[in-house]
Design a protein that fits this description.
Layout (H helix, E strand, L loop, with lengths): L2 H17 L11 H11 L4 H14 L3 H5 L3 H8 L5 H18 L7 H4 L7 H12 L8 H11 L12 H9 L6 H14 L18 H6 L1
Helix pairs in contact: 1-11, 2-3, 2-8, 5-6, 8-11, 9-11
The chain binds iron/sulfur cluster.
The site of iron/sulfur cluster has 14 residues, from helix 9 and helix 12.
């Protein structure tokens, strides 16, 4: 890993050690809780999911309970998040888990990616956050940080689907505790390197940040 990447990586983890956000899906970690948390977080805010996550898990503590429910009942719980099709997707996913995996969340990427509603991002969050596997996470927050700090460029319209950014993210992974690193990266993008008004003046990595130094 080059010096710039090592500087970035070490400082993101250092920042994360005392600044990670506190969410129910980050406690009592199980693959199911991580998977449900990530599916609920799609196109919603953490605050909205925070309000419904515990109720959802209390009602459906395991995939079997969710598979035996019905879409209207699921919708009733997740109503604040909107989208009927989200309730439908959760129901289908739970049935797939029951029918194809005996109600157990797969531990490997090949099977995870075949689950209903699961793409590369969610598959990797399950692997990283529940099994602490050394896999990259790329979302809009991570893309923004890479663009600003490293001046990362992509010629793809949807950068999330650019193989290059996933490879780049992978090249930054620490040898150990990727869960802490990836959580730190996501939270850093939410709290410090925000879309608008990033907190550059107080930023722990500003001395090597391309965006910050170009503004000076
Ligand atoms: S200095 Fe500003 S733009 Fe650069 S990483 Fe920090 S918050 Fe983001």
């Amino acid at each position: 890993m080059d010096k710039n990447k090592a500087f970035f990586n070490e400082n993101i983890v250092k920042w994360g050690k005392s600044n990670l956000r506190d969410f129910p899906w980050r406690k009592n970690i199980t693959p199911y809780r991580i998977l449900i948390g990530e599916l609920l977080l799609q196109r919603t805010t953490s605050k909205q999911v925070d309000d419904v996550f515990n109720e959802f898990i209390d009602e459906y503590p395991i995939p079997k309970d969710l598979a035996e429910s019905d879409v209207d009942k699921i919708l009733e719980i997740i109503k604040p998040l909107g989208l009927y099709r989200r309730a439908n997707a959760l129901f289908k996913l739970a049935n797939q888990l029951e029918n194809e995996h005996l109600g157990v969340i797969p531990k490997n990427y090949t099977d995870l990616i075949k689950l209903f509603g699961v793409g590369k991002y969610i598959a990797n969050t399950v692997l990283c956050f529940s099994f602490n596997e050394r896999v990259p996470i790329v979302d809009t927050n991570v893309i923004r940080i890479f663009k600003r700090f490293f001046n990362f460029k992509s010629d793809k319209k949807y950068i999330e689907s650019d193989k290059k950014i996933w490879e780049f993210a992978e090249s930054l992974l620490p040898k150990n505790d990727c869960r802490l690193y990836n959580y730190s990266l996501l939270d850093f993008g939410n709290l410090v390197c925000r879309p608008k008004n990033p907190e550059c003046q107080d930023c722990i990595i500003r001395e090597k940040c391309v965006y910050y130094n170009n503004k000076l």
